[in-house]
Amino acid sequence: MPKAKKASTTGSSRTKPLGQRSANATRKATSPANEKSKFGNKEVETSDTPDVSSPANTEPNYLLMVHLMTSSDPMINRVLSVPPNINFNQLHMVLQIAFGWAECHMHTFRVELVHFASGRKKPVLLLQRHAKDAPDYGPDLKMQEETLFKLSDVLEKEEWKGKVSITYEYDMGDGWQHEIAVLGRADAGLHAMLGAPEEEEVKVLCLAGEGHPCAEDSGGEPGWERLKEAFKKRNGDKDLREWYKTVCLNGDRKGLDPWKWDIFDVNDRLCDIKI
């Protein structure tokens, strides 16, 4: 299968991720039929999006670079704009949408203090949904409920500020680890400049990225590489191709192009998350 042209989300043809779709923008084939877009002139309804509303926040958004560790050719990453008062359960939902996961496995956030001179990391906070059912990790480190912690609680904590790394692990079997790096704060008016409609309370945006979402239950990094290889070669593994097209929870009947992803589809779904 010929390699598709690498789609840039920051080039001149894609200056507004929430504005009018460019001619070369692609549409994710597995998008729910009952989804209604706030952008891009789509005409279908939306449903099943949880209301995660909380008091208004006036602080500038954080700009996050999140990349799926071990991914390559292409590296799978997303640049996100999120409010400081987003809690970690809401951040989990954002990451599920941004990376195209199907939310069918457990996840954990791991916060570590980094000693930059030596590179050593010390875990200081573990977060999970329904943490009361999780095992303890020692007398000084217990799993905490992710709904009770905001992103700013971690990034602005005086003794941790500028010294923490955050990792989001999804699916403990396949072990997909997402490294979350803080690039800075968003400028005032950034969302409007990118085409977010004024009448919408859009708090979370995907600004850029690269790489098709990984396949659920593909067997981690080795399995994902085998799946990409199956679609790359004309005589690739037919059973793997059929599994991805018909069985995989976030598969696509049209097949797999590792470079293809749809920033418009991601933002259509993110706009329903109310912080």
Account of the 3D structure:
The protein has 275 residues and is of the alpha+beta class. The chain is 18% helix and 21% strand. It contains six helices and eight strands; from the N terminus they run ββαβββαββαβααα. It has helices at residues 88-98, 151-155, 190-193, 220-232, 238-246, 263-270; strands at residues 62-68, 77-82, 107-115, 120-128, 143-145, 164-170, 176-185, 205-210. An eight-stranded mixed beta sheet has the order 5-4-3-6-7-1-2-8. The longest helix is centred in the C-terminal third of the chain and has 13 residues, at 220-232. The N and C termini lie far apart (42 Å). The model is unreliable at 1-15, 20-36 and 40-56 (pLDDT under 50).
SSE topology:
Layout: E1 62-68, E2 77-82, H1 88-98, E3 107-115, E4 120-128, E5 143-145, H2 151-155, E6 164-170, E7 176-185, H3 190-193, E8 205-210, H4 220-232, H5 238-246, H6 263-270
Percentage beta strand: 15-25%
Structural class: alpha+beta
Please count the helical segments. 6
User: What is the 3D form?
Assistant: globular
Mean pLDDT: 83
Largest sheet: 8 strands, mixed
Order of strands in the sheet with most strands: 5-4-3-6-7-1-2-8
What is the compact description of this entry?
With 275 residues, this protein is an alpha+beta fold. It has helices at 88-98, 151-155, 190-193, 220-232, 238-246, 263-270, and strands spanning 62-68, 77-82, 107-115, 120-128, 143-145, 164-170, 176-185, 205-210.
